[in-house]
């Protein structure tokens, strides 16, 4: 859990101070009602929490009297230290009842994460998404190296292997994915958003839902083992509705054989995509295992 930078407070107030800090950093603004609704406290208590926060971090907030909202200043410095994994989980799943870790008598281990986004980049992106604003970024791609782009982000995406922002790219006049770890600089002074062209409603691959059917690999020696892995009965398949923009990432993450005749090694690819030609006609599968650029599926 993040720990306060200064001062001694009760655990409950410390949690509310963290809420102010978190929303300011990742949303760009916070109100007293945010605390009232989150913690079920009186408005007067929320007022005292903001007074204490501004005492501890006097340069972090500006109060907008017309909108009755506290906004992040350009001098903002986090009052708390942030663990990246905790932050990503909070952005993904929301907040639970408490922030303290539970006692865990059973040892649980997991494969380590090899890459995580820079929290300042993540915060700038999440603020732009919340406010509906465009960003100027320096971006390093595998194909073209470092270039400067103007983007309009509308969503954050965790593919299971990396985090990216789904955004309208003004340089290419289309919606694209931008890996957060490849963003080297962010500037929030881009031109205003052209909503009829650049908003999430115009991202057709994001709005379109495609139905995937995943089956135990037909060349596997013992398909029953695979069925048990995924809770399937004999002859059953996994049916998944997924955004067209996300289909390739899902198939890659789960090692799904997308070749036309399921020809990949079943010891490595335990699942296969049913009717890959149909799916390829609806989504771009260039990163999916077994996809052939030459044949188009």
TrEMBL record:
Domain DNA-binding transcriptional repressor CapW winged helix-turn-helix: residue ranges: 12-84
Annotated InterPro entries: CapW-like (IPR016634), CapW_CTD (IPR059020), CBASS_pafABC_assoc_protein (IPR051534), WHD_CapW (IPR059019), WYL_dom (IPR026881)
Domain DNA-binding transcriptional repressor CapW C-terminal dimerisation per the UniProt entry, residue ranges: 209-278
Domain of life of the organism encoding this protein: Bacteria
Domain spans labelled WYL: 120-186
Name recorded for this polypeptide: WYL domain-containing protein
Species of origin: Pseudomonas veronii
């Amino acid at each position: 859990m993040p720990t306060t930078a200064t001062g001694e407070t009760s655990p409950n107030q410390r949690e509310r101070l963290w809420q102010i800090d978190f929303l300011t950093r990742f949303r760009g603004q916070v109100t007293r009602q945010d605390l009232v609704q989150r913690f079920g406290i009186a408005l007067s208590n929320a007022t005292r929490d903001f007074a204490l926060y501004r005492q501890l971090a006097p340069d972090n907030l500006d109060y907008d009297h017309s909108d009755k909202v506290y906004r992040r200043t350009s001098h903002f410095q986090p009052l708390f230290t942030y663990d990246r994994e905790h932050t990503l989980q909070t952005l993904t799943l929301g907040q639970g009842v408490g922030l303290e870790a539970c006692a865990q008598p059973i040892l649980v281990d997991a494969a380590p994460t090899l890459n995580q986004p820079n929290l300042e980049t993540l915060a700038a992106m999440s603020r732009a998404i919340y406010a509906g604003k465009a960003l100027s970024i320096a971006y390093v791609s595998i194909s073209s190296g470092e270039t400067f782009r103007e983007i309009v982000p509308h969503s954050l995406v965790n593919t299971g292997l990396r985090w990216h922002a789904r955004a309208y790219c003004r340089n290419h006049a289309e919606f694209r994915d931008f890996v957060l770890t490849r963003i080297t600089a962010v500037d929030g002074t881009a031109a205003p958003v052209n909503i009829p062209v650049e908003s999430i409603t115009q991202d057709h691959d994001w709005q379109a839902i495609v139905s995937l059917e995943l089956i135990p690999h037909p060349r596997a020696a013992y398909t029953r083992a695979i069925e048990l892995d995924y809770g399937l009965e004999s002859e059953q398949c996994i049916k998944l509705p997924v955004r067209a923009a996300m289909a390739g990432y899902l198939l890659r993450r789960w090692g799904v054989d997308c070749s036309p005749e399921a020809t990949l090694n079943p010891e490595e690819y335990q699942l296969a995509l049913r009717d890959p030609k149909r799916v390829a006609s609806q989504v771009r599968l260039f990163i999916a295992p077994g996809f052939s650029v030459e044949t188009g599926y």
